[in-house]
């Protein structure tokens, strides 16, 4: 099982009044990693996979420890934990080599923007996602 690795820079504006990265900012980190995974790494040259749109149906986040601002980026590691007919679940860890700051998951629904409705996952998308499928939870 492969994992997608995304390097996320920390911005000064990510900090809150308490001197650590604000909890809401972690959603942006997850979004950046998810978009990099689903669109930049989509299968095939010129493949329309995932390009037609998708919507987030659910986020779940466990904040493990505070992340203070620094110049070094954090890593957002992501993988797939479930592939359904018309949805998928992506799991994440926001971390560096020493520690995990956040564990999270997102349910994503492919969406047909023209028809304004959810759509099924294509065979090509499913094949791509299966390379990242791991149904076991991450180690604590």
TrEMBL record:
<protein>
    <submittedName>
        <fullName>Acyl-CoA thioester hydrolase</fullName>
        <ecNumber>3.1.2.-</ecNumber>
    </submittedName>
</protein>
<dbReference type="InterPro" id="IPR029069">
    <property type="entry name" value="HotDog_dom_sf"/>
</dbReference>
<dbReference type="InterPro" id="IPR050563">
    <property type="entry name" value="4-hydroxybenzoyl-CoA_TE"/>
</dbReference>
<dbReference type="GO" id="GO:0016787">
    <property type="term" value="F:hydrolase activity"/>
</dbReference>
<dbReference type="Pfam" id="PF13279">
    <property type="entry name" value="4HBT_2"/>
</dbReference>
<keyword id="KW-0378">Hydrolase</keyword>
